[in-house]
Write a structure and sequence with these properties.
Blueprint (H helix, E strand, L loop, with lengths): L7 H9 L1 H32 L19 H57 L11 E3 L7 H7 L14 H16 L23 H44 L3 E4 L7 E5 H12 L13 H17 L5 H7 L8 E6 L8 E6 L6 H15 L7 H11 L11 E6 L6 E6 L3 H8 L16 H6 L28 H9 L9 E5 L3 H15 L31
Parallel strand pairs: 1-3
Antiparallel strand pairs: 2-3, 4-5, 6-7, 6-8
Length: about 550
């Protein structure tokens, strides 16, 4: 059927598809509108040029306003000018639409080319370029590894599975600190320990701030749920990997070890590994077969020699105990496969751990170590490690920024508090005896004195307990909750076995963690249920309910 002005749309649809047919229809409609706007604009410009007033511009004017004929004509001219500007904007818009219809096919080609380029790039980045494509597992056995077995072994023999746990206390303390950082303090008291028992606390929260706190709580809960799902998934994957590794370890037909050079995993048939090791042991030039085990005889002989050297003064008591052999056994031998050579030969390795002369060898190695060092070079990492071992660790009484718990020796009363200073100072404020909280006095405060005794490597963290700012005023009355408990009940607190529940260097996070500890443990000596108000998580950390399975 030939195409005419009636069936042209159907003809294009059948021969070129719906997209081309739709574009042709829009293009034709755009051309018609474009031509109409051109004619309208030409008509308006001609009227303005010949000072003619079209009928759509005129409006009715009463005879009483005929005296304003000049102003009315100026108004007509202004309306005509505005209409010409409007038609020009319409013409520009229609030109853009027409050009877009012309370029639609070109756009489709460009977008398809971009999509193909992005798909190629995505497929290429699926393989991490930083991860080597070389498989670290060399399987020379008859057993074919499954996908789960390969994923469990690909991390290496020394891979340690971490514990995927979610620290809810740290999360809540960070969220509360974030909210307070945005809004400022929520109450008129920085620390509720400074509050009197009958003093009311004024909250500085507006309804809008409470609304934002609810939104932050919703976002935080969603994050906690997603984190819990992720932790459960990691735990499940780790559990499956451990089961797979246990099954591989129980398979006696294969032998899993590491290569001779480099890192990786090598899997050999157990029989093949044993045969290669027997070939090495059967070499008469290297090894010899013995009818008996001489370990005990050699151990007793070495003991006698060490005892004689000790009596003659060649060995000190500490060196004698270090080299003295106990419970010795024969040295072990194993082989590491040389995967870079044909036939995969084994390199024999003799492990003397636990043998009769192993402890003596370690002693001699330490004695000979200074002779192996060059005077021109120094191993700074080892020197720093030696210095770090000499530094005295910080005792519990000298630690700061902690949440602590004190218990009563007579009853079950407990107290939970926090301090940003040294714990011994805070305990002294609670009324602890001086002999318990005494700090070791500082020595060698002068630089010359420290240099003179530098060889002793003695470092002191404490400060003098007799300093002016630390001296306790005997006339000052201690009014803490612990002291009131001691006074009212005549009980004794356990000042020695106090414990640290949590720690944080940020002051407000430390307050939040103290509040969480008070909410969780409910100590009877604390005056308030928490140290600061918790806005986002007022109930504190949630406790998981544990169920015991009853076996009938």
């Amino acid at each position: 059927m030939p195409m005419n002005h009636i069936n042209y749309s159907q003809f294009i649809w059948q021969h070129y598809g719906p997209l081309i047919s739709k574009n042709v229809w829009y293009w034709g409609k755009s051309l018609i509108k474009l031509n109409k706007i051109k004619h309208d604009l030409s008509f308006l410009k001609t009227c303005k040029k010949e000072k003619l007033i079209p009928k759509f511009v005129r409006f009715h004017v009463t005879p009483t306003h005929a005296i304003y004929k000049k102003a009315i004509r100026q108004c007509y001219q202004q309306i005509l000018t505005d209409e010409i500007k409007y038609k020009k904007r319409q013409l520009t818009k229609e030109y853009h639409i027409s050009n877009n219809l012309h370029n639609s096919k070109k756009w489709n080609v460009t977008h398809n080319r971009k999509l193909e380029s992005l798909r190629t790039e995505y497929n290429r980045t699926q393989e991490d370029p930083h991860i080597s494509s070389i498989d670290p597992i060399k399987n020379y056995s008859k057993r074919k590894l499954t996908t789960k077995e390969h994923s469990a072994l690909v991390n290496g023999l020394d891979y340690v599975y971490h514990n995927p746990s979610f620290n809810e206390k740290d999360f809540i303390s960070n969220v509360e600190t974030f909210f307070v950082t945005l809004l400022g303090r929520c109450t008129d008291k920085y620390d509720w320990e400074e509050k009197e028992l009958d003093e009311n606390i004024t909250y500085n929260l507006t309804p809008e701030q409470l609304q934002y706190a609810a939104k932050l709580r919703s976002i935080s809960d969603r994050f906690k749920r997603n984190a819990a799902k992720e932790c459960n998934l990691k735990t499940k994957i780790h559990k499956e990997s451990k089961l797979v590794l246990r099954e591989l370890a129980q398979d006696k037909s294969i032998y899993i070890t590491r290569p001779d050079k480099g890192k990786g995993i090598v899997i050999l048939d157990h029989d093949e590994y044993v045969n290669k090791m027997l070939e090495i042991l059967n070499d008469p030039l290297t090894f010899k077969t013995l009818d008996h085990d001489p370990t005990i005889k050699k151990e007793n002989k070495l003991r006698g020699t060490l005892l004689k050297m000790k009596k003659r003064g060649f060995l000190s008591e500490a060196e004698y105990k270090q080299a003295f052999p106990v419970g010795s056994h024969c040295a072990r031998i194993y082989g590491l496969p040389k995967i870079h050579k044909s036939g995969i030969p084994l390199r024999p390795v003799m492990s003397t751990i636990g043998s009769y002369n192993y402890r003596l060898a370690k002693l001699l190695a330490n004695k000979l170590q200074p002779l192996r060092k060059s005077k021109a070079t120094r191993q700074f990492s080892k020197e720093i490690n030696k210095l770090a071992k000499k530094v005295k660790p910080t005792t519990q009484n000298l630690q700061s920024h902690v949440v602590y718990q004190l218990s009563c020796n007579t009853c079950s009363a407990k107290y939970i508090g926090k301090t940003v200073r040294q714990a011994c100072r805070r305990l002294k404020e609670h009324g602890a005896p001086t002999n318990i909280t005494t700090i070791e006095p500082s020595q060698n405060l002068r630089r010359s004195a420290r240099i003179a005794e530098n060889k002793k490597f003695q470092i002191y963290y404490g400060e003098s307990d007799t300093s002016d700012y630390e001296e306790v005023n005997p006339e000052k009355t201690i009014t803490s909750a612990i002291q009131r408990h001691i006074t009212s009940t005549n009980h004794k607190m356990d000042w020695i076995n106090w414990s640290i529940l949590d720690r944080d260097n940020h002051p407000y996070r430390l307050l939040v963690k103290e509040s969480l500890a008070i909410t969780e443990n409910s100590p009877s000596l604390n005056r308030t249920t928490r140290s600061i108000p918790l806005v986002v998580y007022p109930e504190g950390s949630t406790k998981r309910t544990t169920y015991n399975k009853i076996v009938s």
